[in-house]
Amino acid sequence: MSKNKNYLRHLAIIMDGNGRWAKERGYIRTKGHEKGADVIRDITQYCAEHETIETVTLYAFSTENWKRPKYEVDFLMKLLDKWLKGELETYHKFGARFETVGNIEGFSPKLQETIASIKEQTAHHTNVTQILALNYGSREEIAKAATRLANRKEAITEESLGNELNTPYTDVDLMVRTSGEVRLSNFLLWQLSYTEFFFTETLWPDFTPTELEDIINQYINRNRRFGGV
Ligand code: IPE
Ligand code: IPE
Ligand code: MG
Hints:
Layout: E1 10-14, H1 18-24, H2 29-49, E2 55-62, H3 70-94, E3 96-101, H4 109-122, E4 128-136, H5 138-151, H6 158-164, E5 174-177, E6 196-199, H7 209-220
Parallel strand pairs: 1-2, 1-5, 2-4, 3-4, 5-6
Helix pairs in contact: 1-2, 2-3, 3-4
């Protein structure tokens, strides 16, 4: 049996538990989103400094999250706009490139402009690519990719469909979900086919680079067989 340790290139995280974190403290849910946004910075720094991580994909807003009360959705949109503008300096400092996956067209023109501007200004950074999944739903991503191939009368193969997805087609090595929920919630179904999963009870606002490092150390020693022996 090979003693090779697992390589970690692409990390994905479902950042869950902001609302419960706030509720436990007697705050309104939106306070949890504010605290959670700060954690993204710490985790991005960790990934930028990590030797092998090239991409970190973070689930920030799902196509299902529009079901939330209007005040919470409005708050999240405003927070994202303000947060991104404030993060520019951080992206430069960490050498992090900002990218997104999901239907950005579903957002206000102002927010779309902010997103495009931060992407453009960080496009040259190479330490890590941070992909925020925004208005993202995996089933929609796959259906739209298949439709584009069909419209172009191209064969639908694992390779062509994988390349047609909006997420650059690199398999995710490690997926972490915080808050104790054990489900995917329509996140990266295709890209997670052979990913190692970790679920932690920690609520996202309490998640730290130290806990991430501990998870990565466990990942490194897992036996990834990919169907072999
Ligand atoms: C995750 O935290 C953040 C988003 C989905 C935007 P939640 O808001 O889902 O927090 P809980 O799951 O209600 O605690
Ligand atoms: C998934 O969390 C989406 C994000 C973290 C952005 P949710 O809290 O929305 O998912 P469910 O409702 O627990 O499935
Ligand atoms: Mg949740």
